[in-house]
């Protein structure tokens, strides 16, 4: 196996490992639009990194975390319907990011790499940072698992039982922002949410408990990464979209299995 392909596989597995349980909560809480909004804001992080001359990966992570906090604050105020607010922020941040990035065209920025991912170009340093963040997020999810399940089932009841609902919900948004920041390198801004949602949606039909759904979603995500990279290598296709299509194919198979049973 070529070195670049091995590094890409390691990076993709790290993202899939944590995207499984996080995607499960995104499916349960219907947070796909939240993921889209956070993902689209990642291009603004690229702009900040260029303006401030700092590491782009760090700038993307900080930008996603900042927007996650803004989303939580705006959602708590409820001066607009949540879907309307997310629609405005999602498309405006994407448009602003595209415009700002185009201004720095002299820096030879590969815009398609940010939009659709560039997993085949990950370095050893990228792989290490992705694994560190993935394991940290996974550890936080394990620690917050019961409170997250409680607010997912019934927020008011969880609050009565003493669960700090606002803090737990904010933590979930911040964890999602971190995963989106590292997944940007794998599948790009436009396809990040698909990597979160599709394996989780497929695992929902194959599991009976929340824990089973989270584990199966991670496994399906890893298989999608492996199949997508294989398709990209053999047929010279874009790796990020190939990974998403592999996940979609597995979801389609779960639909057939459901119909047969």
UniProtKB/TrEMBL annotation:
Record keywords, A-Z: Cell inner membrane, Cell membrane, Ion transport, Membrane, Transmembrane, Transmembrane helix, Transport, Zinc, Zinc transport
Transmembrane segments: 6-28, 40-73, 85-104, 125-145, 171-201, 213-233, 239-256
Subcellular location as annotated: Cell inner membrane; Cell membrane
GO biological process entries: response to zinc ion; transmembrane transport; zinc ion transport
InterPro entries on file: ABC_BtuC-like, ABC_TroCD
CDD domains linked to this entry: TM_ABC_iron-siderophores_like
GO CC terms in record: ATP-binding cassette (ABC) transporter complex
Protein name: High-affinity zinc uptake system membrane protein ZnuB
Membrane topology per record: Multi-pass membrane protein
UniProt similarity note: Belongs to the ABC-3 integral membrane protein family.
Role: Involved in the high-affinity zinc uptake transport system.
Source organism of this protein record: Cellvibrio mixtus
